[in-house]
């Protein structure tokens, strides 16, 4: 599945999770899936715990995060 096809799995609906980007209109925000992956959970563990998710959903969340990180320039934030 191409990156563009994966990104089509990410939906934004003001009625679901306060408009946060979610997977396939389900109540699984991208940020939460990325947190699960970054905490050390494997794809297999997540799919067992949440059977309505698909492997491509997790790849879509990663692709969405990667796309968001493609910025032109970063400026340090000072307090």
Description:
The protein has four helices and two strands; from the N terminus they run αββααα. It is mainly alpha-helical and 79 residues long. The protein has one domain: Arc Repressor Mutant, subunit A (Orthogonal Bundle), CATH 1.10.10.10. Strands 1-2 form a two-stranded antiparallel ribbon. α2 packs across α4. The model has no long low-confidence stretch (mean pLDDT 93).
User: Which CATH class is shown?
Assistant: Mainly Alpha
In total, the number of domains comes to: 1
Q: From the 3D structure, determine the CATH topology.
A: Arc Repressor Mutant, subunit A
Computed structural class? mainly alpha
Give a count of the beta strands, DSSP E runs of length 2 or more. Answer: 2
Strand arrangement across the biggest beta sheet? 1-2
Backbone CA Rg = 14 Å
In the CATH hierarchy, what is the superfamily? Winged helix-like DNA-binding domain superfamily/Winged helix DNA-binding domain
What percentage of amino acids are in beta strands? 5-15%
């Amino acid at each position: 599945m191409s990156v563009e096809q994966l990104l089509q799995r990410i939906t934004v609906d003001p009625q679901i999770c306060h408009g946060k980007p979610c997977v396939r209109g389900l109540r699984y925000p991208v940020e939460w899936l990325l947190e699960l992956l970054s905490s050390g959970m494997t794809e297999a563990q997540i799919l067992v715990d949440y059977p309505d998710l698909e492997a491509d959903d997790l790849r879509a969340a990663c692709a969405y995060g990667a796309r968001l990180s493609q910025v032109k320039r970063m400026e340090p934030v000072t307090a």
